[in-house]
Write a structure and sequence with these properties.
two-stranded antiparallel sheet; 68% helix; 128 residues
Length: 128
């Protein structure tokens, strides 16, 4: 085999350098692709965390609303049957611990009462 000329050897060296440069470029592109993929996954993870936090907050609000609704239903469903000798003040004292709240009972029962001083045994009053 004949010895290689300087030109042949130079061409081989350049070809090797080209391959090295191509490999380096391919590695750089792969690194960039992986970086972008990691950023996308991090952004998705952050989005999932935010959605979970929002869902937790909504669940908490839902529980609070349910509790409030139960309380309102319980209050709306409370009634009192008037006993002989009762006054709206007596009923307010018994139900609220405050005789001065009798107007609330009167207002809630205006469909049954025309005068707060005229209540009769057996009347069923709503207690708001």
């Amino acid at each position: 085999m004949a010895p290689k000329s300087l030109l042949d050897r130079l061409g081989e060296a350049l070809t090797g350098e080209d391959k090295g440069a191509q490999e380096a470029e391919a590695a750089r592109q792969e690194a960039e692709r992986l970086r972008q993929e990691a950023e996308a996954k991090a952004a998705e993870a952050q989005r999932q965390l935010e959605l979970q936090a929002q869902a937790d907050q909504e669940a908490s609000l839902h529980r609070e609303l349910e509790e409030a609704a139960r309380g309102l239903r319980a209050q709306a469903g409370r009634t009192y049957v008037v006993q002989s000798g009762d006054t709206l003040s007596d009923i307010a004292q018994a139900m609220y611990g405050d005789a001065g709240r009798w107007p609330e009972i009167f207002e809630a029962n205006k469909d049954k009462l025309s005068d707060p001083n005229l209540i009769h045994p057996g009347q069923e009053l709503r207690i708001p």
